Amino acid sequence: MTERKKIAYVFPIYNERGNIEVLYRTLVEELKRIESRYTFEFVFVDDGSKDDSLELLLELREQDPRVTVLSFARNYGHQMAVTAGIDYAEADAVVIMDSDLQDPPAVSIQLIERWESGADVVYAQRRTRKDTAFKRTTAHAFYWALSKLASIEIPRNTGDFRLLDRRVVAELRKYREHNRFLRGLVSYVGFRQEAVLFDRDARLSGETGYPLRKMMKFAADGILGFSTVPLQLISRVGLAISALAFLGIIYSVTVRLVAPETTVPGWAFVTVAMFLLGGIQLTMLGVLGSYVGRIYVEVQHRPLYSFALVAGGTEGRDDRTETVRRIG
């Protein structure tokens, strides 16, 4: 009898008390269609939730030995939670899903089927999405900017909902930067990547873990982590301003020599020009500071995350838990 392949599901959790039970029940029901061919592990990473999400997860762990609960010592963010789950999972493939049921569990089976057809990465690409007009507009603007600036091609209208083959997981574990943009890292490592289109549902309950402030930081991680265009733009702006200044000098000298009576002395133009140049310089310094700040964070070599609790596993799990602590 052929040994069944193992699929690990990774769920980042932050204040999801209203979604956890429904997510678990829905997923388990969907997986009954293929459980004769696979074994499953469910890795829930609690990202410092302030509600009773952790208690609900531990109750699930008591009911189902396939459930593993990793609890951070504090809130590290969505991307770190996904990273911890990827670091911990040992399986033939890892499926990453959000826990608010916007990523339909039924679609994960399509990801598995496409993986069995030979793809190493299968990403779920949104055909439609039930979000606010503001969210759709900003998402479109972000992906447009990313496509223009990034040094690699990152598929549009995708989140972290995807399946990764174990070879891809092994490669991702080598990338330990702190300002993480996982969908960019997955594109960066390569391998055979294919899309599965799906219609994204509305959030079941609770509030999004990505308010505007976090969305802006996430966008910065994506652009600054995979593009040096902002740095190149500084040089281009500087050259353009220098060219304009040189033309201004030629114009001023010409007017002074040819028609000195037309020159009108005044400080308004000079003042406006000073403020304009000052603003441009500060903006340039801000871009440089963003890159330098990232360098500063990376050279400190601090752990990506720390666990307050690890509850999971059967045989061989204790040794792997220690490995996770070292990786983090």
Automatic annotation (TrEMBL):
Keywords from the UniProt entry: Glycosyltransferase, Membrane, Transferase, Transmembrane, Transmembrane helix
Membrane topology term: Multi-pass membrane protein
Listed SUPFAM superfamilies: Nucleotide-diphospho-sugar transferases
Cell compartment(s), UniProt: Membrane
Transmembrane segments: 233-254, 266-292
GO cellular component: a single term: plasma membrane
UniProt xrefs under CDD domains: DPM1_like_bac
InterPro entries documented for this protein: Glyco_trans_2-like (IPR001173), Glycosyltransferase_2 (IPR050256), Nucleotide-diphossugar_trans (IPR029044)
Recorded family membership: Belongs to the glycosyltransferase 2 family.
Name of the molecule in the record: Dolichol-phosphate mannosyltransferase
